[in-house]
Amino acid sequence: MKNGWSQIHKFLKANGGIPIVMMLVFVWFVNGTRLNKGSENVKIKIDMSIEEYNNSRRKFLRNTAAAGILAIAGANTFLSSCQSEKKEKYKFPSLLSQAPDGSLLKAGVVGCGHRGTGAALNFLNSGSNVEIAALADIFPDCVEACKQKIKEQKGVDISPDLCFSGINSFEKLMECDVDVVILATPPHFRPQHFKACVKAKKHVFMEKPVAVDPVGVRSVMVSAEKAKMLGLSVVAGTIKRHQQDYIETYRRIADGQIGDIVSSNSYYNIGKLWHRNPRPEWSELENMIRNWVNWSWLSGDHIVEQHVHNLDVVNWFVGKHPVKALGFGARQRRISGNQYDFFSVDFVYDNDIHYHSMCRQINNCSNKISDRIQGTKGSTNCENTIFNPDGSIKWTFEYPKDGSGSNISRLNTNPYDQELIDLVTAIRTANPVNEAFQIAESTMTGIMGRISAYTGKEISWDEMMNSDLYLGPKTYIMGPVDIPKEVPTAGNNL
């Protein structure tokens, strides 16, 4: 709490002495909507159906007209000041092929599924003198599978004493002698785990997205500011920001080569990812977590969990987040969980730039993953090409060549390795990088679009920043899960 009060003091000083009562409410508001009552820690407003969300939103906005508006104003002012500071100058990653040599860096992995195991191997590819020292996951079989794969591929045998399982296994890992923590659990848990990493003064690589609801996003933003104050490096799994082709395209767009941006559109249309059928020996909570990619409270729905890549690229190139969204979506083919199969959303930025976002996960359909930004003097696919107004190519990124001198249409360094190379480089050069704010904004963008589609209503950024919507159970017990499980339906019956 000492660091928290120091942060509040700095904020008060910088903002002319905002009344302390507002800040007291603000501290409660941004730290996960918790109230301390004696020795109890009581969460409020946790489980909401879509109808409850609409009612809560109306009630919440009415209440903010009274004393509560002070807390929201304080929160938004504080978080906006954090975000505006990082927008002053974009910090490009180093893009070295290997991180510089240095003292031993030990990493721990929280979330030992497919992506967590992959990120662990990427870390071991990042340079010399790096080590995966500890593993944590809810399920012991995931820990063991990760441990074995690392041993098979890298010859690293992690001590069983440093392998932890259970809901609170991440807390045990935070106590270990590790410098870096890789966060790759289902996104619902990311805010809590990121907060624990910052408290333990660990550098972080965290996969996208970083939350599934507004409460989680705001928690990440606050933790991001604390990480910045501590000089910690945080890299997010927004892989395109670590690809030289995207970066060189961005540089040219930022220099005005397509003029003023006027519109954009993105596609993330793919087939089904996967699902896991329930097993009788698994509790409902275990079934849900093992099938997390199909539950909105765990993944955020695929507009947040997958499409966030596109949302992040457009926010990056435009240089800001949208201020409102109006969209629709539905479910036709999914056989488990409560998510939608497709979304179509019109995002609007504050200068009336319209961005059409489309994403779909249905098998045997035409697939497309791409972005396009239109300017007054041309357009770009964001990845490697700039076009003149007549559609002819103005510039294209030159990829490395093979032995015969032909372009190989890919980068020399695997982008998944590049993310970890850039993190290790930032740590070893004492040049901290903090990507948590930008991925938090992109995550909130996806959540705003999702809520618009679920409710059929236009949703504003301010509503999201002020919302107390939290998705998930009140406690994590391997048994029944007492939350709404119906598929959201917008509007009323005809």
What does this structure look like?
With 494 residues, the chain is of the alpha/beta class. 39% of the residues lie in helices and 18% in strands. It is built from 17 helices and 17 strands. It has helices spanning 2-14, 20-30, 50-63, 68-86, 114-124, 140-154, 169-174, 190-199, 214-230, 244-254, 284-290, 296-299, 302-305, 308-318, 415-428, 436-455, 461-466, and strands spanning 34-37, 40-43, 105-110, 130-137, 163-165, 180-183, 203-206, 234-236, 261-270, 324-330, 342-348, 354-361, 368-375, 378-380, 385-387, 393-396, 459-460. It has a nine-stranded mixed beta sheet with strand order 16-15-14-13-9-12-11-10-17. A hairpin with a 5-residue loop joins β15 and β16. α2 (20-30) packs across α4. The longest helix has 20 residues, at 436-455. The chain starts with a helix and ends in a 28-residue tail after the last helix. The model is unreliable at 1-73 and 83-87 (pLDDT under 50).
What's the SSE blueprint?
Layout: H1 2-14, H2 20-30, E1 34-37, E2 40-43, H3 50-63, H4 68-86, E3 105-110, H5 114-124, E4 130-137, H6 140-154, E5 163-165, H7 169-174, E6 180-183, H8 190-199, E7 203-206, H9 214-230, E8 234-236, H10 244-254, E9 261-270, H11 284-290, H12 296-299, H13 302-305, H14 308-318, E10 324-330, E11 342-348, E12 354-361, E13 368-375, E14 378-380, E15 385-387, E16 393-396, H15 415-428, H16 436-455, E17 459-460, H17 461-466
Parallel strand pairs: 3-4, 3-6, 4-5, 6-7, 7-8, 9-12
Antiparallel strand pairs: 1-2, 9-13, 10-11, 10-17, 11-12, 13-14, 14-15, 15-16
Helix pairs in contact: 2-4, 5-6, 5-15, 8-9, 9-16, 14-16
